[in-house]
Amino acid sequence: MTIAAPVLAKQGGVLAGRLLDLLLPPRCLACGVTVDRQGSLCGRCWQEVLFITPPFCRQCGYPLPHSAVPDPLCAACLAEPPSFTHMRSALRYEGAGRRLILRFKHAERIEGVATFAGWMAEAANDILAEADILAPVPLHRWRLLRRGYNQAALLARAVARLAGRVHLPDLLERHRATASQQRLGARARRENVTPAAFRPHRRHARRIAGARILLVDDVFTTGATLEACAKVLLRAGAAQIDALTLARVVRNEAHPI
Questions:
Q1: Which CATH number fits domain 49-248: 3.40.50, 2.60.40, 1.20.144, 1.10.287?
Q2: Which residues lie closer than 8 Å to 146 by C-beta, 6 or more apart?
Q3: Which residues have C-beta within 8 Å of that of residue 6, sequence separation ≥ 6?
């Protein structure tokens, strides 16, 4: 009986998965064509996904493919070091990577979360081991109500499960509504999202003090939002803030931001 129960449970899960595939055929996360299994990419899109691999900036994780020195530091971090200690991203926000994130963020295609989390955990394996808490960049309550979910929170929870780390989805609150960052330039983004838009949740004050916190978001563009969140948590007594995103915008090697 004790041996049969888990076997039956596993068989039930397999049957449930097959039934789901019949009712909702698995589709490519990036382009929507039919694929073999849920949460995967077709061959063409897989070839277009550009993963970020070393060498990259040791602080912000920006790819520096032509660097001749180990653990390089990019020009942006040299000129103005960010508030977070380390930043990592799994892939470039372009091509199929951009398409899959847009579908995830705006078309409710959340079946790829487990796949994304695996990519992110691999990209951040050097900083996940140091993290005490994983927390998502929060949405304002009105935007959360309109969208129905916070994509950053889904990613943070999935990565925390893979890494065996604590996930606190409400560590930060976005108490001030801000305009969408999507069509804003770098300066406008920094002016739009400031530390004043965020605050730590009061019930987590003791957990923040002295903690090494890994902030999670979907896309790193200029870093304005993550910078604001990091400043708020450091002021609240956090020992170290790192950041992890599924993707990041890549402009030029000399000065990415």
A1: 3.40.50
A2: none
A3: none
